[in-house]
Amino acid sequence: MVETVVVVMVILIIAAIAIPNLVHGKMRANEAAAVASIKTVNTAEALFINAYPEVGYSSSLANLGSNGSSCEKPTSTSACLIMDETLTSGVKSGYLFEITGDGNKPTSGYTVTATPESNMSGRCAVSSSQNGDVRFSTPGAALTGGRSLGGSGGCDL
What does the alpha-carbon distance between residue 66 and residue 144 come to, in Å, rounded to a whole number? Predict the structure, then answer.
């Protein structure tokens, strides 16, 4: 009986050590996936503005994807530049993605943001714009106050 209690206690101690590390590793993987997705959107936006200069940058993730079309004849509302339907839906790897245009016609600037769905999916919000710089910030904080990719701090990969 005592041996069984000791074995259970050892298993619980190992679990108490391992589970936080697993959660932290998953959060870091989600953050890295968010950065990769932001870079994918930046590339698609560069292709979009070259293909549709009369529209400018896309103000919609759906427009960068197939948007329900067969992609036989891409248009500005279904450019077929991002074939990842999960990303173009706006939710991927525990992050919410959104593009905001500058409001001009044609759109001459955009900001793409990725914010964690919960505090378990990531610690950092990621953003970028037409200049291609990827920035990190604490969710809810002003994105302009974030750090660029490659700096030091809690949100950098």
Answer: 31
- pLDDT by position in tens, the chain (length 157): 888 988 889 898 888 888 888 888 999 999 999 999 999 999 999 999 999 999 999 999 999 999 999 999 999 999 999 999 999 999 999 999 999 999 999 999 999 999 999 988 899 999 999 999 999 998 765 544 445 554 434 565 5
Structural tokens at position 117: 């769905």
- Rounded Cα distance between 33 and 19, Å, is 21
Name residue 106's amino acid: P
The span from the CA of 18 to the CA of 14, in Å, is 6
pTM of the full predicted structure?
A: 0.81
What are the φ/ψ torsions at residue 125 (nearest 5 degrees)? -90, 145
